[in-house]
Amino acid sequence: MSETPTDQTSTETPTEAPESLSEASSLSESVETPETGNKAAREAARYRTQLRETEAALAAARAQVEAFQSAEVHRLAGERLAEPGDLLSLSGKTLADFLAEDGTVNADSVRSTVAELLAARPGLRKSDPAVDPSQGLGANGPSHAASWADLFKQSNGY
User: Fold this and answer.
1) Ranges of each domain in the chain
2) Per the record, which residues fall in region Disordered (predicted)?
3) Using DSSP, how many helices (H) and how many strands (E) does the chain show?
4) Of 101, 100, 110, residue with least CA distance to 75
5) CA gap 81, 95 in Å, rounded
6) Angle 107-124-112 (CA atoms, 0-180°, nearest 5)?
7) What are the backbone dihedrals phi and psi of residue 14, each rounded to the nearest 5 degrees, phi first?
8) Contact present, 77 and 69 (Cβ < 8 Å)
9) 56-93 burial: b if 16+ Cβ within 10 Å, else e
10) pLDDT tens, 62-96?
């Protein structure tokens, strides 16, 4: 394995690679004119600061979108699962598996995975609310408004 001598004996001094196109152009300008070196260095520092701020804002926005996506997946899973978190932990899938190409949650994919999970483990199903028939009919019972005729029937014995 022979290396070419030009790779090892380069006349250029090694520098860090520029992180963005604007930084690269700023660095090349500072090399060309030493008089404007301080101005170009300040401008490059300003661009680096802007870049860091923009990257931080983008990371925060991505985290927020991922939280919304996760909440939607849990909401859809909670329609039939007692514990919506079981969808991701027991199905072996990740949040990305339930997203469409445009980043929206694919509701059909979530529902079909929930159905598969419930077929394998029916105990994960959301339970029906308990009803005690001895406690009355509740709000769904027949409503009968008393009329004058009903009052006369009760008082006259008819």
Assistant:
1) 18-126
2) 1-47, 124-145
3) 6, 0
4) 110
5) 17
6) 25
7) -70, 135
8) no
9) eeeeeeeeeeeeebbebbbebbbebbeebebbbeebeb
10) 999 999 999 999 999 999 999 999 999 998 899 99
Q: Residue 148 — very low, low, confident or very high, per pLDDT cuts 50/70/90?
A: confident
The total of other beta-carbon atoms located within 10 Å of residue 145's CB is 5
DSSP per-residue string spanning 15-35: -PPPSSHHHHHHHHHHHH-GG
In this predicted model, what pLDDT tens digit does every residue of 7-28 receive, in sequence order? 444 444 444 444 555 555 555 5
Residues 6+ apart with CB under 8 A from 47: 20, 22, 23, 26
| Tokens read off for 49 | 């600061």
pTM score of the predicted model: 0.56
Q: For residue 18, give the nearest of 27, 5, 10 by alpha carbon.
A: 27
Q: pLDDT tens, 98-142?
A: 999 999 999 999 999 999 999 999 999 988 777 776 776 656 655
CA 53 to chain centre: 22
Rounded Cα distance between 114 and 105, Å, is 14
